[in-house]
Structures are given as C-alpha cells and as structure tokens.
Amino acid sequence: METKKTGRILRWLLWILQGLIVGIGAILPGVSGGTLCYAFGVYTPLLEVLSSPIKGIKKHWQLLLCVGIGGALGFVGFSGITAALLAWNEPVVLCVFIGLILGTVPELWRESGEQGRGKGSFIALGVSFVCIAVLFYLVGSVWTVTIPQSIFGFVICGVIWGLSFIVPGFSSSTLLLFFGIYEAMSLGISRLELSVILPLGGALLVTVLLLARLMRFVFARFHSVASHAILGFVLATTLMMLLKDCILSTLTLTNALVYLFCLLCGAGAGFGFTRLSDVLRERAART
How many domains does the chain have? Predict the structure, then answer.
C-alpha cells in the first residue's frame, strides 16, 4: 500500500516537473511547447481532454492538474527569470533545452513505430523536416514582419502560441521574436498585465480548442504518418536551434565544450524523464 502511494506521489511530482519544463520551454525562442508535451508523453492525453472534455478529464484529471500547475509556474512565474537567463547566456540555456529534446528522441522513435512504419511514414518524416527547416530559415533570414504591441497584436501572439502547442515543432517564441513582439509579451506576462494576458490567453485557448479535435482525428486515422511527421518537426526544430546565430557566432573551443556539456546534461535529463515516466506507468498498470 505504501509503495503504491509513493509511486503515485512520484508520478505527480514528475508531471509537475514536466509541466514546469513545458511552461519554461514555451517562453524560450526556438523551443516548441508542443514538442516538449509530445516528448514527455503529455500530448495525446491533452488532445483527448481538449477534444472530449468530460471523458478526457475523468480519465486524465490528475495528469492535467499536475501538468497545468507546473506549466503555469513555468510560463508565468519563470518568464522574467527566463528572460534574465537568456540575457546572461542564451546559447547555454538553449543548449540545455536542445539536449532535453534530444534525450526524448529514442522514446519518440519507438512510439512513432508502434503501429508500423510504411513508406508514407518516412515520406511524412522527410517532408515535415524540410518544411520546418525552411520555415526557420525564412523567419530568420528573409521575412521582416512586425506585429504591433496592441490588443490585436497579443491576440495574434495567442493564436501563434496555440498553434505551437497543437503542432509540435512549431516554435511560437521564435516567430514572435522575429516579429518584434516577444520581449513586450514576455515582460507583460511576468508583470501580470491583463492587457497582455487576457487577449493572449483567450486567443490561445480558442485556437487549441478548435484544432484539438482535428489533431485527435488525424492521430486516430493516420497514427504512423502523423507520428513520423511530428518526429520530423522535432528533429528539424532541434537542428535549427543548434544552428542559431547566437550559438554559431560564439563557437570557440572552450564554448564548444561548455555547449556539449549542456547538451549532454539536458539529453540525460530528457532520457531520464521518459524512462521514469515509462516505469511509473508500468507500475501504475500493475497495481
């Protein structure tokens, strides 16, 4: 009985920690909140809750509550801290999160092949990889669009952020950074400014609710193709993050060793999270 209770508490703490990382990651340029949700095994239950609230909440309410608490702490409570860390050493912070994502890739590869891998699966992986890589290139090198710092602008922020949670690999922070509204938005969140939080949060919620049922249908009918497409998003996001100017422009021998160390630490943590999640799920299934 005590072992079962301990396992439940550990599972709750793990979900809160994963939610915290998702929330912080959603703030970081180049990191997709949806990617982290998918990597930590939260994405599918979240889609189920959003597309069928009554049935989904009854089944996943503990996970939803814990991840929600952690996500809120990371998203709101750490937005100012994250901005300070990025100002202190952006490459180091990004390398840790890149490592976190890399550490989950083995589990993502295993899960994507649970229903087999056909020719269409590999095509989806390749196409999604190229599309996200090209998008990152265009946003970083070609497009020069500015979003106004107004209620309408923050509504657009919410729509973009909602897309990043529903479409893993789609990095809202990267787009918002290049659209010139990222700093104003993150400062507004950290200061709990309602003129920022309300339009952003409302647009995010509407976007997620509208797209969740569609994504659940796609996964139910085309699981292998959709899973491999998302894996392509994840791999492309990771590669383009590694190629960011702030990392390449500071790539001395000493910095390279530091970045490698951060990548390995992040990868170890990411792999550990996925393995611990598997162990706790298996233990819960046996009890």
Answer: 1
